[in-house]
Backbone:
């Protein structure tokens, strides 16, 4: 996964088959440092060598990335590192798979419109769904590589803590007003939200009956009129 992600990045800034004048080594150096924490002086290496092609450049970047990753992960036992790597991969797959299913749902809802362009909706759905799946695999590869390359391992405890999903315990959500009521009333929240009982004074007046005020109008057209 790491080699594939690095190869994609290198080929973007150093196109295959291009000449040195077309290489963007400065941009590649910045991208490697930002995404993978690799500080490489590629321009200096190019100036030091008489011949320097794409394959040599790619091999050096991949080798440097592998060495940096192994040295970093040696701070913890192998089984702990593998557990952390597995957790990172599974979390990335789960996240991107959910997004992929959502994308397929949107694609399915609008795929019938391809028929207006004289295209077979079924074939277009297969083609675009495969493109979405391929893009998902690339995103998983790039995200996993980036996360594992930039993470800093200080000791075994930090690896074990990072590989464990965080959980919230003993969480107590409170509202300022409700908290104040709770201090004044031992029953707290129950007393604050308890509704007041409605008590009717006098007999109930029907809407078509004369209004008790003596106006001579029906109750619904007088004091019982709806606002």
Residues:
């Amino acid at each position: 996964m790491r080699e594939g992600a690095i190869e994609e990045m290198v080929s973007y800034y150093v196109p295959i088959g291009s000449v040195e004048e077309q290489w963007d080594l400065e941009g590649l150096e910045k991208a490697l440092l930002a995404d993978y924490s690799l500080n490489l002086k590629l321009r200096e290496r190019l100036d030091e060598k008489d011949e320097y092609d794409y394959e040599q450049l790619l091999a050096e970047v991949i080798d440097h990335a592998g060495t940096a990753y192994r040295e970093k992960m040696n701070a913890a036992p192998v089984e702990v590192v593998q557990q952390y790597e597995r957790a990172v991969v599974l979390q990335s797959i789960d996240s991107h798979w959910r997004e992929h299913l959502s994308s397929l749902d949107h694609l399915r809802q609008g795929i019938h419109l391809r028929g207006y362009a004289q295209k077979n909706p079924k074939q277009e759905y297969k083609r675009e769904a495969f493109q979405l799946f391929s893009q998902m695999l690339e995103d998983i590869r790039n995200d996993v590589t980036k996360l594992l390359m930039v993470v800093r391992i200080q000791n075994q405890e930090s690896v074990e803590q990072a590989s464990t999903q965080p959980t919230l315990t003993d969480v107590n959500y409170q509202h300022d007003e409700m908290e104040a009521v709770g201090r004044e009333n031992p029953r707290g929240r129950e007393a604050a939200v308890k509704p007041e009982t409605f008590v009717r004074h006098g007999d109930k007046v029907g809407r078509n009956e004369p209004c008790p005020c003596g106006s001579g109008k029906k109750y619904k057209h007088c004091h019982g009129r709806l606002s």
Notes: The chain is about 60% helix and 0% strand. The mean pLDDT is 80.
